[in-house]
Amino acid sequence: MRTDVIVIGLGAFGSAALWRLAARGVKVVGIERQAIGHPLGSSHGTTRLFRVACMEHPGLTAIAQKSLELWTELGERTGETYVRQTGSLNVGAAGSRPVSGALRAATEAGAATTSLSHHELQSRFPQYGGLLPGDVAVWDPGAGICFAEPTVRAHVAEARRLGAEVYPHTMVTAIEPRADEVIVRTPTTEFHADQVVVCAGAWLGTLFPELPLTPRRTPMFWFAPKDPDSEAFRLANFPSFIWELADGRGLWGHGSDNGFAVKVGLEGAHSHITGFAADDLDRSIRPIEDIAVLASAVSQAFPGLDPAPVQVLPCMVTDSPDGQFLVGRYGDRVVVAGGDSGHGFKHSAGLGELLAQQATGETPYADAAFIDPRRF
Ligand SMILES: Cc1cc2nc3c(=O)[nH]c(=O)nc-3n(C[C@H](O)[C@H](O)[C@H](O)COP(=O)(O)OP(=O)(O)OC[C@H]3O[C@@H](n4cnc5c(N)ncnc54)[C@H](O)[C@@H]3O)c2cc1C
User: Which atom of ligand 1 sits closest to the CA of residue 218?
Assistant: First the structure.
């Protein structure tokens, strides 16, 4: 089969690239090893945090804003909501990463933010039980939550509507760039194209072993309030947050609404093991290292939550050495996207647009040098 562009891997990044290529009228084929919206990679579950004043790098603000613009446009067409902007809190000591990083995004990328003193934080958000006297917050009014699996499915459905061909349950076994084309092989077929966009998530390092990528086990947890009638932990009252605790670990999450419970995760938990191949992720949930450790942090931070999780799902992220994505050209006929480092979903539509621009030779809408895969 011959086409213009092949996208390999249709999780958050690849499904968005497929959509943005199809939106340009490019003849594009998407190949996914599993079902569309499956729970075995990094993009499953109901929600992800959406932030604009991104603590990880000021360059991410433009990419989050592009995601918002594209998801708003898509939602106007489909009648669905892909982002809910409730605002979010970056909490910690004045010099902590969430606080200083959000302020840097405000200064360098023009993200709108408001600083909250310790007193303002405590009085407006009494759910926070374990604040230290020096803890303050930065309010990111453009932030909120985005919807994970429904968005991946919507990207693919929209791409199909615009003419993309999609092959789920099809594993790519080889990518062979040649002078005049790139050949992509599966166990039963070979595809020929001008360009390939490889978005294989935790498996990107299997296809390109020289890339410095490390899958990391990171289960997801949901909680309920102790008082089932309490409104304190509803999304409208308990918007998304990232909180650097005194010991340097990070708590993050958001409130509940119809269809999802309160989500809380712990960054820096030692059950977040690395050093495994993506196919070998340990999907079992550990009563002590996963549940007891997080329950202890939750009971100190949010005393109104029942610390026993109501739901747990295995998941993994893929770390890069500097915590930034690897997105961009990686050869004359190859573009890659991976190394999500645990903060990629909110950027997926914006990255899909960048990937489409890179695959078609357009000028990128944002500076992508800080995520160039060849920087290592
Ligand atoms: C617990 C947790 C919490 C998170 N919280 C947030 C958050 O709050 N905000 C945020 O923005 N981000 C968050 N993230 C990160 C976000 O979910 C990821 O950045 C994003 O989902 C990565 O998408 P991806 O497309 O790179 O990977 P994936 O979704 O895993 O997609 C890769 C796809 O490639 C396919 N594939 C692999 N190899 C092949 C092959 N050989 N042939 C064909 N297909 C192949 C796989 O099956 C898979 O579908 C979180 C992640 C986790 C795990």
Answer: 1
